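Appendix B. One record, verbatim.
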Amino acid sequence: MNRKDVQLILKELNIVPKKQLGQNFLIDKNTRDIIINQAQVSTNDIILEIGPGLGALTEKLVEIAKKVYIIEIDSRLSTFLKNKFSNYNNITIINGDILKIDIPDHNKVVSNLPYTITGPILEKVFFKENPPQGILTIEKAIADRIFSQDNYKTSSRITISVNTFMRPKEKHKISRNSFYPTPNIDLTLINLTPREKIDKFLVDEYKRTFYLNLIRGIMPFKNKNLANALELYIKKKLNLDLNKKEIVNILEQNNIKNNKVYSHIISDFVNISKIFYEKIGLKGKCD
């Protein structure tokens, strides 16, 4: 579908694209083919597509994949897609909010993600044991942070969290003119593959949440020494009575250097989470 085709269909459906829903519809065939080629969809794949819009990607996915699940929050688009793909028996269309529903089992995500909720989607879909592969069109600024482990200026919470569970393999520039309405951000196609294994601490949902919250809490202070950042986070979020000197001692006892936050590797952050999760647990037992 080109721009005129999309505009006509949206008019017939009485849909005005909503920025808050990230409704930007794919209109460029070449971009679609780039995404599909990068995904390397096979007849064994069970695909999840989030925010399919008018089904530009879906058209290709259903021709190859064993099964395609698509999740569309707009009921009008969901009805349109059910009619459009009514002749296919390998597709299930779910009308719902990706952040609120249970996601069907799948091994690969192929999506132009809604840009307004990229972070929460990444956390729900990929931050877990045995995550799927992800071929995703996202905001370039977020993609750059995901790939910036060795650059402290652009390293952020999303850098650490994504790289804890996934390996960013490739990224390709995608023209914003490939979508209607034209988004006001630059876009990048990324390919994320699951890490071979993650620390056992992160398998448990509550411990994983603790880890992600800790990363969220200390990365805004990435230019501070680790003990300083932890002290600020502990005082604000954790019910622990620890001063900086005590935190430094704890780090030293566990062979973790009190360097700048950004200089630490993922295993350091996991170990830090283990240490303070245990301390909170012990405190709870003593209270």
